[in-house]
Specification:
single chain, 5 strands, about 130 residues, 7 helices, 5-stranded mixed sheet, alpha/beta
Length: about 130
């Protein structure tokens, strides 16, 4: 996957002060689990949506994009289901959405959801690398 495709979003260090300590704990735990699960296949982890934009309401969910070198949803989604429940139970901050994607899948999102990749590029917070 080209690093150019993933070169978007503000680094977490630049916006760290806008997140609470429990949110930062969630990000750290999630990153550790995702890195453990995917190893060298993991290319990037990004927070998107209202939490990344700073417009979240109390009940807003946490939307994460998990960029992988290759992604077969039928394989990856069951793997992430357990992680989803684990993070929700441990942190209790609200609903968590984990979306695995390859470069090709990310680029193809606009065909189904017009303008979504531009929204992601504008609003994302890069949690890793």
């Amino acid at each position: 996957m080209s690093q150019d495709t993933l070169n978007f979003g503000r680094p977490l260090d630049e916006v760290r002060a806008s997140f609470s300590s429990p949110e930062l704990d969630l990000f750290s735990d999630l990153l550790g689990e995702v890195r453990s699960l995917y190893g060298e296949r993991l290319r990037s982890l990004k927070l998107v949506g209202s939490r990344a934009r700073g417009t979240a309401m109390e009940r807003s969910d946490f939307d994460f994009l998990i960029f992988l070198d290759t992604c077969d949803y039928s394989v990856e989604l069951p793997k992430l289901r357990s992680l989803y429940y684990q993070m929700n139970l441990k942190h209790g901050l609200g609903c968590i959405s984990l979306s695995p994607l390859s470069q090709e899948q990310f680029i193809g999102l606009d065909a189904k959801y017009q303008g979504i990749t531009e929204n992601f590029r504008r609003d994302a917070v890069t949690l890793w690398p």
